[in-house]
Amino acid sequence: MLIEVIHSRDPDTSCDIHVYVDGVAVASFTEIDIDPGAGYTREGWNEHRKDSLAALTSPMAIARAAVLFDCAAESQYIEDV
């Protein structure tokens, strides 16, 4: 199985993600964003983490995302208010 992901980012608007499996576009997929530089407060980051992990279904994806969220939580860009 070949999985290809194209992530297109426009810093002034949004990101677009396109997923293909064996060359066929996937119409529906779950995407979460782990970006501590997006202007989160600590409370907002924690809420975003909770909601993002709840959106995932596979145990492997949940575990990996949790590790990435935990590592990013130490970012200087998340404001402790």
Q: Would you give an account of this structure?
A:
- It is a single chain.
- By secondary structure, the protein is of the alpha+beta class.
- It has two domains: 1-31, no CATH class; 32-81, no CATH class.
- 35% of the residues lie in helices and 20% in strands.
- It has helices at 42-55, 59-72, and strands at residues 3-9, 15-21, 24-25.
- It has a three-stranded antiparallel beta sheet, with no helix packed on it.
- Strand 2 (15-21) and strand 3 form a beta hairpin.
- The radius of gyration is 15 Å and the shape is globular.
- The mean pLDDT is 94.
Number of DSSP helices? 2
Largest sheet: 3 strands, antiparallel
Fraction of residues in β-strands: 15-25%
Number of strands: 3
Tally of structural domains: 2
What integer value in Å does the Rg equal? 15 Å
**Unreliable runs, pLDDT <50, ≥5 residues?**
none
Kindly report the spatial arrangement of strands forming the biggest sheet. Answer: 1-2-3
Structural class by SSE content: alpha+beta
Q: Report helical residue fraction.
A: 25-40%
Q: What integer is the average pLDDT?
A: 94
SSE ordering:
EEEHH
